[in-house]
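Researcher: Checking consistency across runs. Here is ABC transporter ATP-binding protein again:
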Amino acid sequence: MPGPGRPRTGAKPKSIRKTLSRIMGYIFRQKTRFILIILFVFIGSCANVAGTYFIKPLINGCIVPLIGKPVTAQALLPFLKMILLMGGIYLIGVLATFLYTQLMIKVANGTLNAVRTDLFNRLQDLPISYFDTHTHGELMSRFTSDVDTLREAISMGVTQLLSSAITVVGTFVIMLVLSPILTVLIVLMLVVMMLIIKKIGGNSAAYFKKQQKAIGAANGYIEELIEGQKVVKVFSHEDEVKKEFGVLNNNLRQAATNANFYANVLMPIMGNLTYVNYAMTATAGAALVITGRMDIGSIASFLQYTRTFSQPITQISQQFNVILAALAGAERIFEVIDAEPETDEGYVTLVNAKTDADGSLTETSERTGLWAWKHPHGDGTTTYTQLNGDVRFNDVTFSYDDKKTVLHDVSLYAKPGQEIAFVGSTGAGKTTITNLINRFYDVNEGKITYDGINIKKIKKDDLRRSLAMVLQDTHLFTGTVRENIRYGKLDATDEEVIAAAKLANADYFIRHLPQGYDTMLTGDGSNLSQGQRQLLAIARAAVANPPVLILDEATSSIDTRTEALIEKGMDKLMNGRTVFVIAHRLSTVHNADAIMVLENGEIIERGSHGDLIQEHGKYYQLYTGQFELD
C-alpha cells in the first residue's frame, strides 16, 4: 500500500468516448428535463441565428432607401417595425437561455447526486482487500476534486456544446444562402482551426490525466501524514516528509502547468484567427459588393455570421480544459465504480428461531433470543441448526497475494463457550485467522466450518451478524457516546446500551463526561483517552450480544489499573461465548481454554497455559522472557 517512502501510481485512463457515453447515461436518467433543455437550447440558438439574418432586410429595405432622403415618421415606421421584430426574436432567445440554464443546474446536481451515490454504494460493496491497497486520500479525491470538475463540465459544458452545435449548423446553412463563395473561405479557415485544436488539445488531454493522478497521489499522502502526525513527530521526520511532499507537489505543479498551458493557449490563438478570418471575409465581401455580385445588407449580415460561426469554436476552446479535466476525473470515478465488488455465493441465512414441543427448531418472526442457521438443500428441504459458535479450521492454507503463503495447513477447533488465544510474533498469522473467520478473505485451500456449516455457504452479512470484533485500533464515529455504543445493535434500547457500558466498566467514566451518554464525539473520539475509546469499543461489542467474539489486542491500550477494572466485565462478556483472543500480553491469556502458538503461519504448540509451561517449548520461552513478542 502506498505510504511514506514508497512509490505511488495513478489510475489508468480509459477511453474518452466510453467515459463521455457513461456521463451522458447519467444525464439521460432525467430524460424529460434533458429533452426540455435540448428544446430550449434549440429555440435560443435558432433565435440568435435568425435575429442576425434580419440585418439584411433592415439595411437593404429600411436604411439604404433612406440614404440621401429626408427622414420622416412615416419613412421610419418600417425601420421601427423591423427593430421590434428583431428585439422580439432576441427576447425569445434570452428567455429560452434562462430556462435551459435553470434546468441544467437541476440536471447537473441530479447527475452528480447519482454519481456520488453509485460511488459511495460501490465503496460499501468492495472487499477489505481493496481498501488495503488504496489510500484514504486517494479515494476521497474521487468525491472532492474529481466530482467538482465533473460538476463544472456538466453544468456548463453540455449546454455549451449543444448550443454551439446548433448555432454552427444554422449559421452555416444561412451563410450558404447568402454567399457560397465566402462560405468556402470560412470553411477553409475552420479546417485550420480544427487542426490546431486537435494538436494542442491532444497534448492538453494527456497532461490533464497526469494532473488528476498527481492530485490523487498528493491527497493520499496528505491524508496519511495527517493521521500519522504523532509518529512523524516522535521520530523527527518532519524534514523527510516535507521533501517527499515537495516531490509530489512538484509533480502536480508540472502536470497542472503543462495541462493549463496547452488548454489556455487555445483561447488567444482562436481569438486571433477569428480576427484574421473576419478581415479576410470583409475584404473578399467588399470586392463582391463592388463588382455587384453581393448587396450591402448581405455582406453586413454575413460578416456578423462570421463572428457567430467562429464564436462557438472559440467557446469550446475556452471550455476545453474544463472538459478534459472532467473526463479525467470521471475516468477515476468510474474506475472505483467498476471495481469488482465483494462476491457472496452464500445461501445459508441467520433467522430467529423457537423450539417446538418435539424439540425441533422452527423459524419465527419474533425475537426469541434463539438464533438458527436456515439451510436450504437441493432436494427442496430446509434444515435449521442452532447458532452455538462452534468454529473449526480444517487444513487451511492462505495467501494474500498468491505469492507468499501466510497460513500453512492450519487446523484448529473452538467449541461453543471456549476461549482460544493466539500468540506469536508479528506476521505469524494471528490476525489473518480472524480475517478468515469473518470472510474478509476466503481460504485458498481447506475449509472453515461454523456450527458444522462451511462458512462459504453462509451469507456474509449473516455470518458477520453472528460475530463481534474489538480491534486494537478503535474507530469511533461522529455522534454521541450512546450512538457509538448502539452501532453494535442499531435497535438497542437505552437500557441495553447502559447495560453494555456497565458490562465493559465504561458506565462510570461516561457519566462523568459533560453530557454523559449524550456527549458528542468528534475526530474519532479525540476528546477521549485511548483507554476510554477502547472501553467504548468493548461496550459496542457487548451490546451486539453475539455468540462469537474476536478480541484483537482489545486491552492493549488500557493501563494496568483500567485492565483490572474491566477484567470481571470481560469475563461476563466472554461467558458462554466462543472467544478468539489475539494477545501480546501473555498475562491476558492465562485462563484461555487453549493457547495456539503460531510461527511462520503454522501452529507449533497448542494447549492450556499450564500444559504449555510444562512442555518448556516456545510458549515457555516467551512467558519466561527468553524471547519477546514483536
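Researcher: Does this match what you'd expect to see?
Model: One thing to look at in this run: Residues 349-386 form one domain.
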